[in-house]
Design a protein that fits this description.
Layout lengths: L2 H134 L9 H10 L1
């Protein structure tokens, strides 16, 4: 066999192999590569979208957290104002109640003083009558001289 004829045969066989591969093997391989390339590109796009969505969600969460903190601070401030208001109202009520109790105590003291004065007047009148009886050594009738005794008691 001649080396040239072998080379030509091998070249023809190689050419047939290349044509066969280009016709039957190469298209499915290229389709698989294109499909894989498309999946990778879609995955990268999805990752980018997810990254942007994550950033947006973090910004939104931070914004909502700031708003919640601000609302909480406002609520606390309102609660403090209301508690101060309640304390002031309680102080006012206590002051009014204290004044009322003080007035009632003063009125009671006045009544007690008047009662004691009346008791003392009656006691003084009895003592005066007893003294007058001893001085006059005569009996003074309390019922008969009640008007005079009342005048005497009113003077004291």
């Amino acid at each position: 066999m001649n080396i040239n004829l072998t080379m030509i045969g091998q070249a023809i066989a190689f050419f047939i192999f290349v044509v066969f591969c280009m016709k039957y093997v190469w298209p499915p391989v290229m389709d698989a590569l294109r499909e894989r390339q498309k999946k990778i590109a879609d995955g990268l796009d999805a990752a980018d979208r997810a990254s942007r969505d994550l950033e947006l969600a973090q910004e939104k969460a931070a914004r909502e957290l700031r708003q919640a903190k601000q609302q909480a601070a406002e609520i606390i401030e309102q609660a403090n104002k209301r508690s101060n208001q309640i304390v002031e109202e309680a102080k006012d009520l206590a002051r009014v109640e204290g004044e009322r109790l003080l007035s009632a105590a003063k009125a009671e003291i006045d009544q007690e003083t008047n009662r004691v004065k009346e008791t003392l007047r009656s006691e003084i009148a009895r003592i005066a009558i007893a003294g007058a009886e001893k001085i006059l050594e005569a009996s003074v009738d309390e019922n008969a001289h009640s008007e005079m005794l009342n005048k005497l008691a009113a003077e004291f």
